[in-house]
Amino acid sequence: MKHLKTTSALIASALALGAATGCESSVSDSATKSDGPQKAAAGGDASKVTLRVGVQKDGVRSILKASGALEDVPYKISWSTFTFGPPLVEAAGADKIDVAGVGDTPPIFGAAGNSDFRVIASLRFNNRQDDTLLVPKGSTVTDPKQLKGKTIAVAKGSSAHGFTLRLLDRIGLKPSDVKLTYLAPADALAAFSSGKVDAWTVWHPFVAQAEAEGAKGIAGGPPDEQGYSFEIASTKAVEDPDRAAALKDFVKRLDTAYQWAVKNPTEWADAWAQESGLPKSTTRAAVPKRLLQLGPVTPDAVKFQQSLADTLHKHAVIPKQVDFNDIVTQGLA
């Protein structure tokens, strides 16, 4: 596998695939390295803020609205939509957005590229699974080991990328034993559906979309992943008292929304379908796999993330070692 020259180059490549709308992207020149978990600024006034929230095709905006969690928000919210995690990290690092949710791998790529952002909260899926390795309808592959010499589509720098590398390690295959084809989710779905790739590693709702067409999952979840995702924020937002106050309030509302979803999965699924244009059958299949718990970044989360960072460095897909603890800010969740 070729070495990446910089994480900035990786994210710029992802952005070239149509990653974001309504938001510029570049790595902040003021990126700094921290010395372990930090505390956010305190004492601010959230009502002075327009909070810039980055989202994916993940139902976050719909869950906040359907749950009523956005009622009486004391600040304005500006939304920007992205295709997956690495461009969100890039945007946060460049202070183009204040907050966003991403999978377990994008923060590590961002840290390796000196992107100026912070991890402010942990989200963990109840089923401990974010990604699934899929094979198309009619495939004779039933075991990941059978993919030796075959093509796997995956979004570079995404949670699916990290999961795939850990899976290959566990089953005794090298990345060079397969052909990893780096495609953004929409492009990967087209390639997968047309038979141009043999397998695809991705997350919901794309998993549900593919399964509706007869695809089958052959790997996912522990021990190759532990179902972690994270809320990230611009470092400048974390350090500004007013924006930090808005961040803390937003994370609390997000927690309320996910607790509501556990008791109201169909309502969330239908709102997600309306927001995204996906069929209700797809979102209703995806929602049970997306229920999660939100809270502070725990030592267990840091331990897993460090092992993932070490795997990424071992395979030379990030340019340097990353200490995950160095990008954590406590006090907002």
Total domain modules: 2
CATH fold type of the largest domain = D-Maltodextrin-Binding Protein, domain 2
DSSP summary: helix tally? 12
Quaternary structure of the protein: single chain
Under CATH, the homologous superfamily of the largest domain reads Periplasmic binding protein-like II
**How would you write the strand order of the largest sheet?**
1-4-3-5-12-6-13
| Unreliable sequence segments | 1-36
What can be said about the biggest beta sheet?
A: 7 strands, mixed
Strand content: 15-25%
Give the terminus-to-terminus CA distance: 38 Å
In total, the number of strands is 14
Structural class: alpha/beta
Mean pLDDT: 89
- The CATH C-level class name of the largest domain: Alpha Beta
How big is the Rg? Answer: 19 Å
| Percentage of residues in helical conformation | 25-40%
In N-to-C order, the SSE pattern is HEEEHEHEHEEEHEHEHEEHHHHEHE
What global shape is seen?
globular
CATH architecture of the largest domain: 3-Layer(aba) Sandwich
Question: Top keywords for this entry?
Answer:
globular, D-Maltodextrin-Binding Protein, domain 2, 2 domains, alpha/beta, 38% helix, 333 residues, 5-stranded mixed β-sheet, 7-stranded mixed β-sheet, disordered N terminus
